[in-house]
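Co-fold these.
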Amino acid sequence: MARTRSKPTAKASKETTPPPATSNAKALPPSVENVPKLFVLPKDTSKDARIVTLDNPASGTPSRYFFCPEKGFYEFTRIAAPKKACRSWLITSETSMEDEQEEKHEENGGVEIGSGYVTKSADLFLATPIDLLFLILPALAPKSAKDTKQLFLSLDDYLDKLSSSSAHWKALLSQYPSLRAMIEKRMDAFCDTVDAGDDSMYRLSNTKLLQILVKKAERICATSFPSSMEERFIKPTLDVPVMSIKREESNTTQTTTDTSSQPQTETQTEASDTQPSSTPSTTLESQTSFESTSTTATSIEAEDDAPPALQTPPTIPPLLRLRTTLSYILSSYIPSPLRPSLLTLLSTPQPQSSTSLPDLQPLETHLSTLAKLKSQAAALRSISDNISRKRAFDDEDADRAAEREEKKRRKEEEEKRKKGESRGVKALKKVDVSGMKKLSSFFAVGAGKK
Amino acid sequence: MLEARLEQADLLKKVVDAIKDLVQDCNFDCNDSGIALQAMDNSHVALVSMMLKTEAFSPFRCDRNIALGINLGSLTKVLRAAQSNDILTLKAEDAPDVVNLVFENSESDRISEYDIKLMDIDQEHLGIPETEYAATVSLPSPEFQRICRDLSALSESVSIECSKEGVKFACQGDIGSGSVHLRGNTSVDNPEKNVEIDLTEPVSLTFSLKYLVNFCKASGLSKNVKLCLSSEVPLLVEYSLASSSYLRFYLAPKIGDEE
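Predicted complex below.
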């Protein structure tokens, strides 16, 4: 388990700060310039673990990574409280809660937190493992999208490229021979290789890389999304607009059911008999959301002559999740020159036998159908807007009217009062009363009359 | 039933004139000991407390405690109709809707009568304890008015320092600074000009001059004004009236930014 430390390991002591000024009971110590940060670091890392600055694979900007020669690289994720929620950390040096090694680090680093420290920003930096692949990818990727011709190069050439890009890479590579082996092993996974004498030559293979990425994405999707992400990315995309009028025929995926008009009063039915009667929960939700009048959303065996409204086939949400995940990985870990070629590779239909890439075609078709429906609904809404949105006069309106009346009356009264103010009273309103306490703080309120 | 007869309408005219620029509406609490008034300004940093004892009236009759909520602007308008030496009679029912004012001219047989509609005023009443002040300065009220007026031209606030040497009013403003120093003196010929300083320990406090100038509108009520100061408590400015009635002002000191 990871543990919370008041500071990173000794070598990273540049991240931490000198203790606040000597404790003076009267005055608060001045706020330190280099504030302590809270890190959650992996457990049982080797003594040589350190924080290094390497180029971010996606943006190319220098970023901090945590490196352990045995376990590999970790990236830092900042977990911050929302801006409006004012939170801060109280950091104390509770030695009993830390193990011996920790104390030693504390001594070695010569940094003590003292009696306690409150940081203004409640940020937590969480180290999470990152695939070495992403970090070496910039060296293998073409410099621009046009540069498609890639040559086979030896491992050393790539390592030289890495070293020249960042001083920390150079230091790491020279210091830890194990790292070289790690890189070589990883390169085997996503590069085409050619044997040239004793050495192997490597070239980035987009297909292999994409397969790895898809595998990663599938692993993320294996456990379904947290509900907040589901709400944000999946549900809105799949929502079918509410249409009370005839819906034109449109083809949906896989099952190729006819979708045509259906009166709202009719119960909704399942599209095809091949589908199981219990659909995944997301499908259910989307159904109920677009057909509020349909009380029974599922479990009625389909008859061929009762065509249902457009539904979300159960295969769609997982595909959409996969696509969302992939686009996240692409945008946050893959160098920008590589992205277009990977995307085209993903969208072009693959012969199912040759690769294990998922077929996103059904999703695309479904989404385009949805988009068409949505634009139709929007057009319809603007026509019928002035009819449907009028409200009848009801009690609520009466209440509101009374409230408004009351407010108006009060305002008038206030204005009248203002007019009645004498010149002196008005002048006194402008007096600067800062530093003057209210008299009620001197004299007791409500005490008997003198 | 309330019936209070004042020999000189002037007294009420001046009292109302003095406080109408500090508060807008207030309750006149009438009971068998007289008519009392307590009100705070909008910012709640100043308080006016008036007490007209029964002895100030002839006769005075109040069967039941009643609170007359009056808009001071309206009262001023009505009192303007009274001449200084008119006889003024205040009348109200036990549960009144209006207060009735009668002005009688002592020379002619002119009698004028006015009713003022009352209002319900919700005001919190503060209990003000009898305080032993560290310094009590008594000086001619025109002198105090002049000091406040002169210094208010320079600054928003004045520091009042009481020491063995006397009392010093000092201020500092954008254009410069100024101070007025008074020593205690008593003259037999002209007791109105006496400056008396009763000091148990030196005090120095800062107050808003605009408020003090406002208080000084009561200067016509009394030849002398009494300033009572202790550190960390409100300043008391007292104008004593005939027959142990009084008009008192309290003002919270400025704490923190010494100017």
